[in-house]
Amino acid sequence: MLTVRDVSELRSRVESWRGQNQRIVFVPTMGNLHAGHLALVRHARTLGDRVIVSIFVNPTQFAPGEDYDSYPRTPQDDAQALAAEQVDLVFAPDVDSVYPDGVKAAGAYPVPPVGHGLEDEFRPGFFAGVVSVVKRLFELVQPDWAVFGQKDYQQLAVIRAMISDLGLPIELASVATVREADGLALSSRNQYLSAEERAHAPLLYRTLCELAERLRQGDVDYAALEQEAMHKLASVDFVPDYVSIRQAESLLPVTPGERNCVVLAAARLGRARLIDNVIVSDNT
Question: What is the pLDDT of residues 189-201, one digit of tens each?
Fold first, then answer.
């Protein structure tokens, strides 16, 4: 496995593989890898000939006061995990390589409409940072496929819209959320939870599953369902930002009779901000 920090070395390697007609699959990460990330890598291996994983903690998607400086960084453990998964190349650039004109010059591409509301309301500028870094990484890696997880559902929708809007020759693959045995979605931020908070954390997923079941049974009082879920979370020390029922593709508000929707939530529990979602469709 190669570890590359220099853009010119990355491009040279990619050009070599392309010269051999090999398909390149890309998994962008911020490191501190867990089983959820490795599930993305394993799926990537099924899609092409070469797998590239980036490790870059992107400063533009952290708002003032968020955890950029303290965001967990575990480069040695990450390298061992990726080598065990037979990743071909790890791209671990510095900030200047990703943003050669400076961080403040990033973000020229507008956030697609699907990125408005929900996370954007509570983390202003987050998706502007996401699209700026993903667009830049796509330009550098030039993959045939890119792989993202469904846990960050709105982010996945934003990237899909960006690829479509720009006409990028990239196929987007998504991988189902990987969970602990008790249902908690894997996240690098779970390590911020105290033992007591960790015991409460699975209630987020259970609450969404209960709400989803009510939808399957035909309940269409969406506002009441959302408020009920918010109150349930707040009763066990969560500080919910939102629980929202949306159309699965557009993330617009649902209307009665909608057959394909997604229930999304974000809530703080101690130092950790947890997000999760459950898809509700004709097939679930």
Answer: 999 999 999 999 9
Residues annotated catalytic, as ranges: 37
Q: Where in the sequence is the domain holding 57, given as residue range(s)?
A: 2-175
d(CA 274, CA 245): 17
8 A C-beta contact, residue 185 and residue 207: no
- Do residue 130 and residue 245 come from a single domain? no
User: Helices (H) and strands (E) in the chain — how many of each?
Assistant: 10, 9
Cα distance between residue 44 and residue 144, in whole Å: 11
Indicate if 155 and 214 belong to the same structural domain. Answer: no
Q: Is 196 in the same domain as 141?
A: no
Give per-residue pLDDT as tens, 119-164: 999 999 899 999 999 999 999 999 999 999 999 999 999 999 999 9
Whole-angstrom Cα distance, residue 106 to residue 115?
Answer: 17
